[in-house]
Amino acid sequence: METPPTATAIDPEDHPLESAEQLAEELAELVRMGDDADLSQYVEQLEPREAARAVCELSDEDEARLLERLIPQQASALLIDVPEVEAVEAVAALPPETSAAIIQHMPSNKQADLVSALADDEADAILAEMSPTDAIKLQQLVSYDPDTAGGLMQTEVLAFRESSTVAQILQRLRSDAGRFRQLDIQYAYVVARGRKLVGVLRLRDLLLADDSATAGELMIEDPIALDAQTPIAELDEFFDDHAFLGVPVVEAGGRLLGVVTRAAVDEQSQSNAERDYRLAMGVVQEEIRTMPTLKRSRLRLSWLSVNILLNVVAASVIAGFQNTLEQVIALAVFLPIISDMSGCSGNQAVAVSMRELSLGLIEPRELWRVWRKEFTVGILNGLALGILLGAVGWWYAGNPWLGVVVAVALGTNTLVAVLIGSSLPLILKARGVDPALASGPILTTVTDMCGFFLVLGLATVMLEYLV
Amino acid sequence: METPPTATAIDPEDHPLESAEQLAEELAELVRMGDDADLSQYVEQLEPREAARAVCELSDEDEARLLERLIPQQASALLIDVPEVEAVEAVAALPPETSAAIIQHMPSNKQADLVSALADDEADAILAEMSPTDAIKLQQLVSYDPDTAGGLMQTEVLAFRESSTVAQILQRLRSDAGRFRQLDIQYAYVVARGRKLVGVLRLRDLLLADDSATAGELMIEDPIALDAQTPIAELDEFFDDHAFLGVPVVEAGGRLLGVVTRAAVDEQSQSNAERDYRLAMGVVQEEIRTMPTLKRSRLRLSWLSVNILLNVVAASVIAGFQNTLEQVIALAVFLPIISDMSGCSGNQAVAVSMRELSLGLIEPRELWRVWRKEFTVGILNGLALGILLGAVGWWYAGNPWLGVVVAVALGTNTLVAVLIGSSLPLILKARGVDPALASGPILTTVTDMCGFFLVLGLATVMLEYLV
Questions:
Q1: Domain A293-466 class, CATH top level
Q2: Which of A24-28, A272-276, B348-352 is predicted least confidently?
Q3: Topology of the domain comprising B159-277
Q4: Which of A27, A86, A233, B432 is the most core-located residue (most Cβ within 10 A)?
Q5: Which of B278, B319, B369 sits opposite A351 (nearest CB)?
Q6: Which residue of chain A has the CA closest to B17?
């Protein structure tokens, strides 16, 4: 964050997708024919995002060859900008020693993200290629939930003893300038024995201080620090309430573990929101249309095939009432409406629970609170929608009893849908299942079955009034 | 962003929802009974987010009374942290002169967000209470698309002439310290006649320079600047590629308009992603369960009532084939499946187009490109899903022809759904309609109608093989 704006003219260029395809072709040619220096130079002159996109266009083999031929620093810089799923695939495809060398050049939080996304045996193979100290540190990081301070922190911090002088600190900063440049460093920390955090140094104060002043004299004592378990909702709130660029992370005894930056929290919140949207729309893994067709088809089918089976299960309820349907064929018109509308009502409740969870406003155990709040809304909306559809049913069939059947069925099922929809994210989260992925399909299967059963069951009971 | 970490202990407190309700009660009591000083002091000691949540819990009357009784600075600080919809309602409810006074204490980008969200007559009434210069400036800001550099920039920048000395600049900084503190200022800009941007000053360099040095000597010449029309996708990419905290915004001739910060871009991207999710799930306006029940019911119904009408329209296709249905009642089992599955396939394509739009990978006019890419996936997935459901149909009805009918209908409709789903966001965006809001309902209505027509139409044509 500290790099100064450098001389370049106004820059309103656009990057149409075609250019990524072109770059990928040029890159693929260099990978296959050029020498290492040419390749390295070519990658160097690309903008990071441009380079990342071109890498995504490469075939898996070309991508592996590229990463092996670059020096580890360069390969690591490239992978940091690539979407995580793509980076994970790439790392898994390389020999473990190459992967280990590349990963060790990444910031600690990126290392942890990548390793925790790998299959266990792949991760173990890569960890085995690292020094035992590095491997243990990394395993420790991987153990944190990615949506907590521990999971979001970088462990690369500047930490000094109270007795360190400004001259010593500046010396250390200068010698490591290259490494710290890319690490968003704004503060240095002062630690006592056992790495216990005792103070914060602003880099600004260092610049203005006398060379012989000590860290202990310049530091701000008793700094704010957050526990490694602090969830992202609270981190978000923390950075809203405080104008800091980063906050130190400590474990129970006050030992300094790392620093969480505002940028890391913002990035994770944004990617969580994007992920919720993607999963709500049935896209299980990020898809860009330049990806190979077969892969895109396969990714989409992985979701659709589960859905079609659930749909068949739900529709089997209809099959059980074939006799009623034959006698009151008008009901067939209302089945898809009841199915779709209950899904809509339930999804709204899912979304509100997801939002309250991500804001830290509810805990997974507060089911009762949520139900109480949804019950009233479910009754009101069930009444409104039931009456509306009931009127349509009466008018369409010319029989008020058909109106009653669809009204009661939709009204009741609306209440069922909001109660189930609101509680699913809480229940799934408490059981460690991803609520964004599972809420939709489970919800619609249950509400479909329940809705079909209600309308056809009621119709069967009232059959004499309907025919 | 420049405020230093100050002395406070470790802070792992949690904010359960109950506390917001309690705070709101205490606040409401003070609003009704306490004097202005007590009220002001009470608000002052709350954390910003805590205060914002309590305000959301207040009744509309108490909220208005609170904002009127606080001094404008304090009211403005409070409203900045409240969700935008809530802030807009509050401002609209106040007398225009009070609203104007409060709004004028906000940073320029917040002013613009708020005013552009107001109804035209309310906005005009408030602008009429401002000085003509301020009103014109604000109107200018409101005219930018909120997803561009112009819409995201703050106009409060530090700008100096080349001849200004360090002593003069530092003097200005100190005198305005309070105002600049909350503005994320990291750089100052050097402008020539007509406010044309000619250089950037790092605040860090100022601190180390001689008092008599001039801005012209210290500045970095020809700084990177972005045009006011730069879309958010490019801003996102810019901050990924450059380690800056902010970038100056200029208009065509190079005149300095303001600065876009990394934080503003991140915040907007996050809120766009959250909004996409919310709308995809049918929540048209942010809902928190502590809001009044009637309001929550009304907000949800505003979406559901449109949906139920569209559903009735789509289902009317089924009514037209009552005769066929009566003879092949098994078809009733497959109607909801075809409706739901086509919706799923179409939604996936919507999500991929939304993502590519937000990444700046496609332009709204690139329909042909998108169709070409979707056609192959649509054929593949249509084949897979069609064959699967066809097999179920054959097995269920014991008649291969019923299998053929549902297979062809679902297969064809899958292709239709991905072609429509992928193009809707582009078409809507090109026409200035919100793609996130409109894609879902339009898509499912069209695919439902098309799917029902395909399966029932085919069945009618092949009736002799089915009965």
A1: mainly alpha
A2: A24-28
A3: CBS-domain (3.10.580)
A4: A27
A5: B278
A6: A361
